[in-house]
User: Which sequence fits this backbone?
């Protein structure tokens, strides 16, 4: 069975009417230096701002995971939840949280988008100092495996932020090195590889969009950065400070200098300006989408369906309305590594089936649900996100 799993993990999360509400930004003020203003929703189709979720002036309720209680932070330092130097943001779709880090700090914060409560994840793994620009965390994104990943300017620390048993854990995955083919386009050189943001793809690799417009693909298993090319179609002095994937699979980029947002085709690196003329100052972008997702070649007719794909109550519905489908079906759930974590038989009568399947034993994360006939022929593969 495992030989068929690779294409299963390239399934798309379909766009929906609320896609623009799943695209977020760190916004700043119109100054020459970084001054955090707020976290806000962005319209990824028009490049315009929406609701402000939390600002530098909001009353902050901070809970320390390590101390297991509320804390009062020193607002005169660079290490607090509303620090002016904010430049790394990721959206955690499994828990509907925004995960972020001040640029001059090792602190990791998790903002609940609904309650506005903030959790401080004390981080003893990364080595960020305000005076060392190489150590600053400037890139962050969600990975296809459900974890959050963050990377410093020099590529010397790739952090994995995972949630297990209700607690966030931080791991240092190692140093990212240049691929031998990169030549003068070094990932670790300030003029070619620093700053910017990163996105995840459907194979749990990453693309870093540097401030200079250079794009590098990071092969996570090899901890290697390969130069892909330079974005074309943007102004010469455009500083790429935010990047995130939209519902169409294109990459949206934004600038801290106050400019239009651009949509970039990852295959060609050709950019086109989005229609909004707002020119916001954006330090980072985040979304729920991934690069290189595509629908499986397996039949995904609406006559057979699995819903919801975002599972909040540990129940999914299996629907069959096809007279050609008869007898017993097999439903199998795989985790992101390809491990079989649940299997159940389904019985179709008269080409019809409406049945709920309980996922109560599955932890939060991304899964693939596969429905197959007795012969082994797969009728439907669908990605779901199980949330708390």
Assistant:
């Amino acid at each position: 069975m495992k030989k068929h799993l690779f294409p299963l993990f390239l399934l798309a999360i379909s766009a929906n009417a609320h896609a623009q509400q799943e695209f977020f930004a760190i916004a700043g003020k119109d100054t020459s230096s970084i001054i955090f203003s707020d976290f806000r929703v962005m319209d990824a189709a028009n490049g315009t701002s929406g609701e402000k979720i939390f600002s530098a002036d909001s009353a902050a309720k901070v809970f320390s995971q390590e101390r297991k209680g509320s804390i009062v932070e020193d607002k005169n330092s660079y290490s607090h939840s509303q620090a002016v130097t904010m430049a790394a943001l990721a959206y955690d779709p499994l828990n509907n949280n925004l995960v972020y880090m001040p640029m001059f700090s090792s602190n990791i914060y998790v903002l609940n988008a609904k309650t506005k409560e903030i959790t401080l994840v004390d981080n003893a793994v990364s080595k960020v100092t305000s005076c060392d620009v190489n150590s600053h965390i400037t890139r962050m994104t969600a990975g296809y495996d459900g974890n959050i990943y963050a990377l410093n300017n020099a590529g010397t620390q790739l952090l994995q932020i995972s949630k297990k048993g209700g607690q966030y854990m931080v791991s240092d995955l190692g140093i990212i090195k240049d691929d031998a083919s990169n030549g003068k386009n070094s990932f670790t050189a300030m003029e070619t590889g620093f700053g910017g943001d990163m996105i995840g793809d459907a194979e749990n690799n990453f693309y870093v969009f540097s401030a200079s417009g250079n794009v590098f693909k990071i092969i996570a298993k090899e901890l290697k950065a390969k130069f892909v090319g330079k974005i074309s179609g943007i102004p010469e002095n455009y500083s790429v400070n935010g990047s995130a994937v939209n519902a169409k699979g294109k990459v949206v980029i934004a600038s801290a200098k106050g400019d239009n947002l651009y949509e970039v085709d990852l295959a060609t690196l050709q950019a086109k300006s989005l229609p909004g003329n707002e020119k916001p100052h954006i330090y980072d972008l985040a979304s729920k989408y991934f690069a290189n997702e595509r629908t499986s070649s397996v039949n995904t007719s609406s006559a057979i369906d699995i819903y919801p794909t975002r599972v909040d109550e540990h129940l999914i519905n299996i629907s069959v309305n096809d007279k050609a489908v008869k007898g017993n079906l097999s439903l199998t759930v795989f985790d992101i590594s390809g491990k079989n974590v649940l299997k159940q038989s389904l019985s179709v009568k008269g080409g019809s089936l409406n049945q709920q399947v309980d996922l109560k034993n599955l932890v939060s994360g991304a899964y693939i649900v596969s429905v197959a006939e007795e012969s082994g022929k797969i009728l439907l593969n669908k990605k779901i996100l199980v949330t708390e």
Remarks:
- The longest helix spans residues 190-193.
- The chain is about 0% helix and 45% strand.
